[in-house]
Amino acid sequence: MAVFPRRRQAIVIATVVGLALSATACGDDSDSGSGSNGSSAECSAFDKYDGNDGKKVKIYASIRDAEADLLEQSWKQFTDCTGIEIDYEGSGEFEAQLQVLVDGGNAPDIAFIPQPGLLGTFAKAGKLKPAPADTKTSAEANYPADWLKYGTVDGTFYGAPLGSNVKSFVWYSPKTFQEKGYTVPKTWDELIALSDKIAQGGDKPWCAGIESGDATGWPATDWIEDIMLRDQSPEVYDQWVTHQIPFNDPKVAAAVDRAGTILKNDKYVNAGFGPVKSISTTSFQEAGLPILENKCYLHRQASFYANQWPQGTKVAEDGDVFAFYFPAVDPSKGEPVLAAGEFTAAFADRPEVQAVQNYLATPEYANSRAKLGNWVSGSKGADINNFANPIDKLSVQILQDQSKVLRFDGSDLMPSAVGAGTFWKGMVEWINGKDTASVLSGIQSSWK
Amino acid sequence: MDFADISPKLTMLVYGLVAFAVVVGGLLLLLDVVPTYFARRRERQLLAVAAGDAPAPPAGYVRKPREFGYAIFFLLPVIVLLLIGLVVPVIRTLLLSLKSGDGTEWVGLDNYGWMFSNSDILGVLWNSLLWVVLVPLVATSVGLLYAVMVDRARFEAVAKSLIFLPMAISFVGASIIWRFVYAYRGEEQDQIGLLNQIVVWLGGTPKQWLLDSPLNTLLLIVVMVWIQAGFAMVILSAAIKAIPGDIVEAARLDGVTAWQMFWRITLPSIRPALIVVIVAITVATMKIFDIVRTMTNGNYDTNVIALEMYNQAFRYQETGQGSALAVFLFILVIPIVVFQIRNLRQQREG
User: What pTM value is reported for the model?
Assistant: First the structure.
């Protein structure tokens, strides 16, 4: 072993100490820009949230990139006025990571949970704090009871709704419809008649795609849920998602088969991509794009598909593309709407966390976010004029319409092993040619 | 990019470097100071003995405990890290695998029963077997063949880097590239996938390659082989170069054919390297996750153990079943590790 000369030892020590000192010097400049200016007129609206200056609230959600920027912008005035610092983090692995964070004792203060099923799991495990009274009051004043029950577990209200999206939409090209003389169908029969008409002309009417990375299959589950609501009653739908009727019940099979009359019909699909099986390898993002090339006429997808059109596409009732309401089978029984959205759930009940919760539940927040664009809310207090985008406007109108029967995306209500597992995978197998009965009994056997 | 955005990261980096310098510097210092101290002391004692003042200390007596102390000192961090990073998680996973999905009740071996009775999971196990048998075999053969063929060829460096390049691509990146290779468009459209375009040029109809089992698993295995063959080639090529020239020359003088040269000289000489390569690729293949997740997400009967384990534990919140799969995977790796250790030992003794 080499023995160092004494002088070199001294140099090593000096270097180490020097580095350590310089590092502490660098580390001191942590930003402390939380100075509250709660006195100005603009801030008077936020007076009731005062007293939390300089406190931090950690929010975790699945919303990322441009959407996350808008989100942070939407509560900027709130944070500026109250001095509460919101530390927002969006993750593409939100559902899996949230579980890990909570189990590891690192739960965020607030999470925007898009799956009531997951919210229920955390609530039952005693991890969630009940929503503060103010949050509950504003939620009850602004959202239908049907919707609030998705944020309620065993009678305790945990999560106020935040953003929403409407899933019961069929995208089409108003321009092409006008050229060819097609009209927007108002009933299921009209929809099928239109599809047949297009198919007779030699074109395939529908395009679809269910590939979505590790979530492949979800767009097909939306189809089934939407048709469940139409083929059966909303009550049967509720029994289905809560497992009061088995997954392979004849009623479910009937709805799946009805979906099959479109999705597994080689005359109808898959416009612009190939035969039926190409649905499973077509990504949901590009599935509707053949509408722009006049290769496809109808594409059932949620309101958020508006973001997928290339730049310069006019999304409006008189534009290049727009969406119509996915018609009911029997409109006399009411018009069901399949929707989804996030709920704000809190893992902490510190005053500043509750202040943020209270604010996010108000119509003021909904309007603040709506003005920034690209967002839909079901809040009654949201002013329709704040939603600039025509498809957002239409979605908000549908959500605020009292005559519509509103139901949450069923796969998000089921246990994740089913709703984000076997149901997705089952639908992929179904598209690939497996028969309805064996797919449904496979899913049923996975639901414990 | 704004400097303010990256400055916390830079501070973190400086902290990391300082911590590294302190720990490593401290260890080096200790390594230097402690033996010198003992050496000096012994020197003084010896001097004292030489001067006739003290009785001679027993020579071999002090060495042993001191070496033991050293060993403990240097092993302790490793043992602690292994304990937190490996032993504790293994035990916890074992316990979890005997519990229900939410970890509340003991269910005995139910999760293992589920694993071997559920037809989906059995399919997963078969796919994994296919991977573990085929990837090491094909990747090593291809790498070896290539290494032998380009050895001392004219453009050896260029030829080798061509095969080695895929190693630099991440599994996810490689999977995305190959997904485009297998991509499908309807007959009436222009193909965007290389494979289907070739099929069309040859007069066939395009196919959805990733849908039909078991062909799709084989097509995924191609991706892994594409990545790993370069690794095998580099190691084996180095081993071939290290074969002593005199053996090769002696064989030549004896008049071996190229065939004999390969089987009698090259292969036995590179046997240790060959085993290392096969073991490394086998272990990597057992853990395969990224390729399947990126290309098919385990759909169309292409699922493998590691992906199913992740899905069960983290996506479906079935920690019990996920842990059972993890334990099974762990048990599968053990014989390979034992084999490798025994092999290393034999080499050292031989």
Answer: 0.79
